[in-house]
Design brief:
mainly alpha
C-alpha cells in the first residue's frame, strides 16, 4: 500500500512537471512570469556552481531550524507552566486567545526596531508565529488526558510533578509531534517574512530580489528549494512520529 501511494505521488509530480515544461516551451503560459522546470533547474545549477546559492540556502535553513526548535520548546514550556497553575491558566487564557487571533507577521517591524535589522528579528518573527500555536495545542492536549490516570498516581502518593512526568507528558507526545508538523510550515512563513523585511541574505531575500529585477525564474527557483527543504523537515518529523508510535 505504501509503495503504491509513493508511486502515485511520484507519477503526479512527474506529470505536473512535464505539463509545466510543455506549457512553457510551447508558450501556452507567460514564460516571464511562470518560467518552466528546465529553465529553473539550469539557473539553480549555475548558481550552485558559482557558489552564490548555498550561502542563501544555509542562512534560511539555520534561521528556520532555530525558530522551529525554539518555538516548539518555548511553546511546550509555556503550556506546562499554564497546566501547572490553574490560576495562571485562567489569567492568561484571554491574552493567549487574543494573541492567537493577531496577524503575528505584522509584528515584524516592531522586532526590527527593538532587536535591530539582523537574524534575531527574523527568529523573533518566527517565534511569534510558532509559540502561541504550540502553547494552545499542547495545553489542550494536557487538559484532555484522562483524569482517572492522575487520580491513580495521587492514590499511591504521587506528587503533581510525578503526575506530569508519568501521565500528562507521555500521553501528550502525539500532540507535541503533531505540533512539530504544523511548526514546520509556520517556521518557514516566519523566516521568509522576516527576510522580506530585513535580510540581505537568504531565500526570502532572493525572492524579493528576483521580483525587483523581474527574474521570476529566480523567484520560482527559491520557492522550489523551500519546498524541498520543508519536505525533508516534515519527513524527519513524520519518521520520529512513526518511531514513537511503535514504542
Amino acid at each position: 500500500m505504501t509503495a503504491s501511494v509513493a508511486a502515485t505521488q511520484i507519477a503526479l509530480l512527474v506529470a505536473f512537471l512535464a505539463l509545466w515544461e510543455a506549457a512553457g516551451r510551447g508558450k501556452w503560459i507567460d514564460v516571464l512570469l511562470f518560467s518552466y522546470p528546465s529553465k529553473i533547474a539550469k539557473l539553480l545549477i549555475e548558481k550552485m556552481a558559482d557558489g552564490s546559492l548555498m550561502p542563501h540556502v544555509w542562512a534560511t535553513v539555520m534561521e528556520t531550524g532555530a525558530g522551529f526548535l525554539l518555538g516548539t520548546l518555548f511553546g511546550t514550556a509555556l503550556a506546562t507552566l499554564i497546566w501547572w497553575s490553574p490560576f495562571l491558566a485562567r489569567v492568561l487564557d484571554p491574552f493567549i486567545v487574543v494573541a492567537n487571533s493577531m496577524p503575528k507577521v505584522a509584528l515584524g517591524p516592531l522586532f526590527i526596531v527593538g532587536l535591530g535589522p539582523n537574524v534575531m528579528s527574523i527568529i523573533a518573527t518566527t517565534l511569534a508565529i510558532t509559540v502561541i500555536i504550540t502553547t494552545l495545542v499542547v495545553y489542550t492536549s494536557f487538559k484532555e488526558v484522562d483524569a482517572n490516570y492522575i487520580k491513580v498516581i495521587r492514590m499511591f502518593g504521587g506528587t503533581r510533578t510525578q503526575s506530569f512526568q508519568k501521565v500528562i507528558l507521555p500521553a501528550s507526545v502525539p500532540a507535541i509531534v503533531s505540533t512539530l508538523k504544523v511548526n514546520v510550515g509556520l517556521a518557514w512563513v516566519g523566516v521568509i517574512v522576516g527576510e522580506f523585511l530585513v535580510s540581505k541574505q537568504g531565500l526570502g531575500y532572493l525572492i524579493i530580489y528576483g521580483f525587483q529585477v523581474f527574474n521570476f525564474t529566480l523567484v520560482l527557483g527559491s520557492l522550489v528549494i523551500i519546498a524541498i527543504v520543508a519536505t525533508i523537515m516534515y519527513q524527519v518529523v513524520a519518521y520520529a512520529e512513526r518511531k514513537l508510535q511503535r514504542r
